[in-house]
Amino acid sequence: MKKPLDAAVREQLEAQKGSWQAIADDAGVSYSWISKFVNNRIPNPGFKTLTQLQAHLSKRRPTATEGA
Hints:
It is built from four helices and no strands. By secondary structure, it is mainly α. The protein has one domain (5-59): 434 Repressor (Amino-terminal Domain) (Orthogonal Bundle). Helix 1 (5-15) packs across helix 4, helix 2 (20-27) crosses helix 3 (31-38) and helix 2 (20-27) packs across helix 4 (47-59).
């Protein structure tokens, strides 16, 4: 079974924790939003924002400092 969108995006963000500022800048969301979302402080994150992040994260490659 496929993961819910919010769980999949949260998992991808947790795996790239050191790069949240760059992800936020590139995806058009704030660092604060990402931090709150990953820490379950946004009860209804919004489909548009989640799909925006998912699209960005699926194209992004981890940097050498993030690991492979």
